[in-house]
Amino acid sequence: MFRYVGLIICIVFTFVPFGLNSEMFSDAASEMAVSIGASADELSVIKIIFMAAQIAGLVLTPRLVRMKGVTVSLTAAVCCALLVNIGLYVSHTIIMSSMLWAINGFVLSIILISVNLLILDTCPRKQLPIFIAGALVFTTLLPMGMYSWLMAEILEHFSWQMFIVFQVWSYAIALIWLVVYPPSNRIFVAKPKSNHFIYLLSLSFFSLVTYLLMRGSYYNWLDNPIYLDLVILSAVLALAIVLFIMQRKQKTITQQVLSKLNTNVYMYNAFLAGFAVMSSNVLCDSFLEKALHYNVLVTGETKLPAVITMLLGMAVSVWVSNHKPALSDKIVPIGVLLILISSIKISFMPSYVSPEQLTIPLLLRGFGIGLLNVSVSIAVLMYFTREEQLEGISCFYLFRTVGGLIGGAFFSHFIHIESAQAINQVNSNVTAFSNTVTHYQATLNNAFLTNGHLPSQAMGSNYMSGVVQQQVMTLTLNNSLIMFVIAICILAPILIVGKKMAAKQKEAAEH
């Protein structure tokens, strides 16, 4: 029982800060920028650095953990995270904040993988789904459903640095527990790994891809000469990595893990889950904030009921994993389908829709996310053998993170393109129905007079401009949601085909 108490303390007091960090750049961006004297553009660069460091951590953590063991790596990472957050509290310069956020992103990945290894090492197989799902509550479900509202409420009364203080407190508790009651330090047997040059190429490639996905989407990658050159450079780096790996006579442990067809299906499953969840999250938030003009607090309140259905979806996934494991594969398509249905419902909504009308689509989306995320995570984390767990978990989170980055970048770019096309479409409609516009202007003037204002061209133009902009954004996001449905319908069949191929291969091996 005592070991479970220690595991719960590690999960809660390391993963709650993990979830907060993922939301701070979205919901506390303005306050963070003001405190360090950065513009919104400079803060977006810091966010890119933070994300690139997280991916670098996912790449390097297996090597570090194989050298030092799970508990030693986790304790060092928590200690480093504690010091970094103290530094973030006192830092007021852009350069120092960038460095601290980079270190923070790196150690967060070490914490993520190490705690998952502790869960797999501590719990019997029957209890694993419960603890894996409990960890996902703090790293994924609450950040998407509850943290936006919670952070907006806190920022109404306190500085954003209150979250840093809370993280320092959380890491301090986790560190004290790890030092006083350390879990057994699981040591992995030495396995063949890539040389330092391959790691350097890999880190350069993933950092460049992260920058392109998070920054290049605003410049249309292939239209801007600088970003076109960076795309070519990233392709060259990818080719170089593949060539160096192919020349190696002995397979590394990561290559051995990824050489199985079933493993590749799980990795694609992770990619699809990251893509679907992040894309729907970006589009849903954009619809609430840009089309309906909700502020962060109202957006958080609107999304809050979905937390309940996320937890229900999580509970269903845990129950199926424990009692009906044969049905686990069927939960993933149901989760994707529910996300698609919610996206279709939102895509047909006008700009004057009330929050109550959004409740059902958001509840469906929450239930779908709970089913998809939790069932995929449980299936993947319980799939690997003991010696494959370290590299397998790292690859799982790497694929899921990259899938989320691609989804966010693609639909951010798609929104930019669609907004330009929507403006042209609205302008053509205005020209075609000039009599209707004239009638609308007359109605506006009467409304101004009724409310005690003298009508003027500037006042009427300003009001009509707001109406047109709102319609443009609504049309843009509706089209983007439809494009999301099309993208999932293209990607999902690949997963189904892969699962059937893996099942046939398994049957052939048994016979």
Automatic annotation (TrEMBL):
Protein's recorded name: MFS transporter
Location(s) in or outside the cell: Membrane
Keyword Transmembrane helix applies: yes
InterPro entries membership: MFS, MFS_trans_sf
Topology within the bilayer: Multi-pass membrane protein
UniProt keyword annotations, A-Z: Membrane, Transmembrane, Transmembrane helix
Any one annotated GO CC term: membrane
Principal place of residence: membrane
Protein species of origin: Photobacterium damselae
